């Protein structure tokens, strides 16, 4: 019962984030040039697509 509810919440959260994925990725792209340590661009930490 608890696992089924957890799985349902995970799927719901995934679908909500997926609907806004373009906005979220654009915001991170804009923040990449900032001086925020965990968001700033670092080629060694980047993921190749």
TrEMBL record:
GO term, biological process aspect, one: endocytosis
PROSITE patterns hit by this protein: PI3_4_KINASE_3
Membrane-spanning intervals of the chain: none
GO cellular component: endosome; peroxisome; phagophore assembly site; phosphatidylinositol 3-kinase complex, class III, type I; phosphatidylinositol 3-kinase complex, class III, type II
Domain PI3K/PI4K catalytic: 1-49
Superkingdom to which the source organism belongs: Eukaryota
SUPFAM superfamilies listed in its UniProt record: Protein kinase-like (PK-like)
GO MF annotations, alphabetized: 1-phosphatidylinositol-3-kinase activity
Presence of keyword Cytoplasm: no
Swiss-Prot/TrEMBL keywords: Kinase, Transferase
Protein name: PI3K/PI4K catalytic domain-containing protein
């Amino acid at each position: 019962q608890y696992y089924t509810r957890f799985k349902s919440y995970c799927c719901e959260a995934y679908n909500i984030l997926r609907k806004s994925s373009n906005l979220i990725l654009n915001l991170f792209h804009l923040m990449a040039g900032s001086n925020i340590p965990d968001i700033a661009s670092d080629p060694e930490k980047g993921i190749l697509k």
